[in-house]
C-alpha cells in the first residue's frame, strides 16, 4: 500500500501542517489502496501564498515558453500513461481497458487540444474593423482554485489545470479525496515538466474543510468546480463575499430520444451500453431513454437483452466488463434509488437490488433497466450515478421535447432519428449545453458544459481558455494614421 501524505506546494512535496491520515479504498476489493492526508485551512493558505507569489512572473512569461511547458507535460503524460491508468483503476475501480483507453487517454486528448487552442487563440486585438483604437486584451485572471470529482479524474483535472496555467494563471488543485492518486501522479508530471515553483500546487482534503477554505479565500480570484450540484451551490455561496468568478460543471439527467424512424435495435443497444459505461458514473450519461410509442416494445426487448449480457467484474482483468461503483456510500445510494424505482411502480426489466451473482466483495451493482418509467418518478428525476437506465415512452415529437426538458438539469441530450430535419429541429429545442445526434462523438476542443443546474462553465479548447481569462478594454489605443 502506498503512503502519500505530502502535498505539492511551491515546487516541493511538503508534509501537511497537521497530520490527518485518510484511506483511499479500492472499490473492487474494499481494501486500503493508499493513504493520503486531509489538509486544513493552513495548508490552503500556504499553497495560495505560493500561487500568488508565482503569478506576477508566470503571467508575464512569454506565451511560447508557457506553451513549451505544456508540450513537455504532454510528452511526459504520454510516456507515463500506463502508470496513470493504473492509478485511476486502483482509486475508482475503472476496468483496465477503460482506465487506459478512456480515462487516462481523455487527459492526454485534452492536453493536446489545449496546445492547439493556445497556439491559435488571439489574446489581443482591436474591438472591430471600425473601432481600431478600442483595443481588447485577454489577461490571465490570477490565482485559480480547482476542485474536481472522482468519476473521470484526469479528464477533469486536465480540463482545468492545463488551460489555467497555459494562459498564465497559477493554481491550487484539490482533487476528490476519494480518488486523489491520479492527481498526485499528475503533480509529479507537472514537476517533471519544469513548471516554475508555485505555478501548480496540490492540497488534498475534503469539501467542507479545504474546498470551503479555497472558495472563501480572498487571494483566490476564481473557482473552477466540477462535482455535484449540491457542492457547486456551496462553493458559490462561500465565494460570494469575495465576488470571485465561479465556474461550475455539475450533474445531469440526460434524455436520449429514440424515434421509430431510426434503426431502433442499434440505437437502443448503443444507448444502454453508453449508460453502463464507467459503471454509469458519468455526468453526461444518457440515463432517461425515451422511445416513440410504436418502437417501444422492440426497445424494451433489446434493452433487456443488452443489460442481461453486460458483464460485471474484476477491473484488473482484460475484457468488456464494467467495474464496481466508487464507494460504499455510492453503492448504498444506488441501492436506495433502485428500491425507489421498484416501490414507485416502474417495471424492473433487468438487474435490481443486491450484488451480481458471485461478487460478494467490492461495490458491484447489477446492470439495471427499468421500463414504464414516468418523469415524476424518483429514478427519472435524480442523478443515480450507477448503471441504472430508465425507459419511458412518448407519442409525439412535441411531447418528447417537453419530457426531455422537464428536468432541472441540462447537460447532454441525445437524439436518434433517421430524419435530418427533425434532428436539426430537436438540436435547437432541447435545453442542454451539448447535443449528440445519432451516436456522433464529440470533436476535441468542443465546449463541454451545461444549461440550468448542470452548471455555467464551458470547458475544453478555446472555450476552456476563455474561462480563465479576464477581458480588458483599452480606449485610445495608439494606432498608426491610415494616411501615413
Ligand atoms: N458537468 C461536468 O462536467 C461533470 C463532470 C464529472 C462529474 N460531474 C458531477 O460530479 C458529481 C460526482 O462527483 P462527486 O461525488 O465527487 O461530487 P461531490 O460534489 O461530492 O464532490 C466533488 C468535489 O467537490 C468537493 N466538495 C464537496 N463538498 C464541497 C464543499 N462544500 N465545498 C467545496 N468543495 C466541496 C469534493 O471534496 C470533491 O473534490 C456528479 O453529480 C456528476 O454529475 C459533473
What would your notes on this structure say?
The chain is globular and about 70 Å long. The protein folds into two domains: 2-250 and 455-474, Aldehyde Dehydrogenase, Chain A, domain 1 (3-Layer(aba) Sandwich), CATH 3.40.605.10; 255-437, Aldehyde Dehydrogenase, Chain A, domain 2. The model has no long low-confidence stretch (mean pLDDT 97). Helices cover 41% and strands 19% of the residues. It is an alpha/beta fold. Helix 3 crosses helix 4 (96-120). The chain contains 15 helices and 20 strands. It has helices spanning 41-59, 63-79, 81-92, 96-120, 153-167, 181-193, 207-216, 229-239, 264-276, 293-309, 328-343, 378-381, 397-405, 420-429, 461-466; strands spanning 2-3, 7-9, 12-14, 21-26, 31-37, 124-126, 135-140, 143-147, 170-174, 200-202, 222-226, 245-249, 255-258, 288-292, 347-350, 368-371, 388-394, 412-416, 434-437, 469-474. A seven-stranded mixed β-sheet has the order 15-16-17-14-13-18-19, sandwiched between helices. A five-stranded parallel β-sheet has the order 10-9-8-11-12, with helices on both faces. The chain has a three-stranded mixed β-sheet with strand order 1-5-4, with helices on one face. Strand 9, helix 6 (181-193) and strand 10 (200-202) form a beta-alpha-beta unit. It binds nicotinamide-adenine-dinucleotide. Nicotinamide-adenine-dinucleotide is lined by residues 147-152, 156, 174, 176-177, 206-208, 211-212, 215, 226-228, 231, 234-235, 249-252, 283, 383, 385, 411, 450, 454-455.
